[in-house]
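Dear colleagues,

For the upcoming journal club I promised to circulate an example of a predicted protein-ligand complex. I picked one with 2-acetamido-2-deoxy-beta-D-glucopyranose because it came up in last month's discussion. The inputs are reproduced below in full, followed by the predicted structure.
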Amino acid sequence: MFKFSALLSLVVAYASAVTLPLAGRQSGACAREYTVAPGDACNKISAAQNVSTFQLAWTNPTAIDQWCSNLRPEQVLCLGKEGKDCTDVHVVEAGDGCWAIYTGAGIPAETFFANNPNVARTCHNIYPGEVLCVASEVFDYST
Ligand SMILES: *[C@@H]1O[C@H](CO)[C@@H](O)[C@H](O)[C@H]1NC(C)=O
């Protein structure tokens, strides 16, 4: 009996440790919703709705694939979860660099990189049309 309950609590602890990160992405109330229109693309939606490209993907881990190739008209997306909803954004233009973007927005580098965890410190992986968060508040996208 003791052995069984010890085993059970081990299994429960393991299961919650494994499922929590994923559950965190799904949980939390949606702050803003958006209904996909014909011809929409992720960066187009992001720029028009003031949401970063990263946040849109992060908030919709199952609805949007990694190439954003599976959007369908009438589909309802959540743009941001309560407390994890950056609405202050910058659309990357050709020739933009991270320093210019965060300096232009008047925010520290740390805030910029915390809110854009997909952007490399070297900034080599941003691209024209990508939408970045330039809010002065730091959002926690880790859970
Ligand atoms: C997006 O932000 C801009 C600049 O602050 C604002 O003018 C515009 O109304 C916002 N659009 C939406 C859909 O919130």
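Two points we might discuss: The chain has one domain: 2-133. The longest helix spans residues 2-26.

See you all on Thursday,
B. R.
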